[in-house]
Design brief:
Elements (H helix, E strand, L loop, with lengths): L28 E6 L6 H12 L6 E7 L3 H11 L4 E4 L4 H5 L3 E6 L2 E6 L2 E5 L5 E6 L6 H9 L1
Parallel strand pairs: 1-2, 2-3
Antiparallel strand pairs: 1-6, 4-5, 6-7
């Protein structure tokens, strides 16, 4: 199955309020990373790391979280992020990639984004995936894989 077929209309917007579909990136390699929340230490570190890596020209980075467009705008501006942030409040994209699930913090169980990264080829097929990502060194590992 090509993930380019997933409809994001109405659910995934960027920090410029534009609506996207993954098919908008047909012909490009996509680094699609899911993160829990803007402006938290781990998510900020991960975003800054993806912002700093060098990638081939035909590659785009897209960060996805359930945060609002307003939150994404502030986050992107505060850290000078050069890549797209998509808002997925109904977790439709997260569900499609099976990264919305039960988590636990301090003994409390809740549902949320399981930090994960996927590389999609130019046709929208997953060529590599990382689940339950540890932030330190992750963006560099992704970059080395895609080159």
């Amino acid at each position: 199955m090509s993930y380019l077929d997933i409809e994001l209309e109405g659910t995934s917007l960027d920090n410029n309020d534009k609506t996207y579909k993954l098919s908008d990136f047909h012909g490009k390699n996509i680094i699609l990373y899911f993160y829990p929340k803007d402006n938290t230490s781990g998510c900020t570190s991960e975003a800054n790391s993806f912002n700093e890596i060098s990638l081939p020209e035909n590659t785009v980075v897209i960060g996805v979280s359930p945060d609002s467009i307003k939150s994404h705008k502030k986050f992107a501006e505060k850290y000078g992020l050069k890549f797209l942030l998509l808002s997925d409040p109904e977790h439709k994209l997260a569900d499609a990639f099976s990264v919305w699930g039960e988590k636990s913090m301090y003994g409390r169980k809740y549902f949320g984004i399981i930090r994960s990264t996927f590389i999609l080829d130019k046709k929208g097929n997953i060529t590599k995936e990382w689940r339950k990502v540890k932030v330190n060194g992750h963006a560099a590992e992704v970059a080395s894989h895609i080159k």
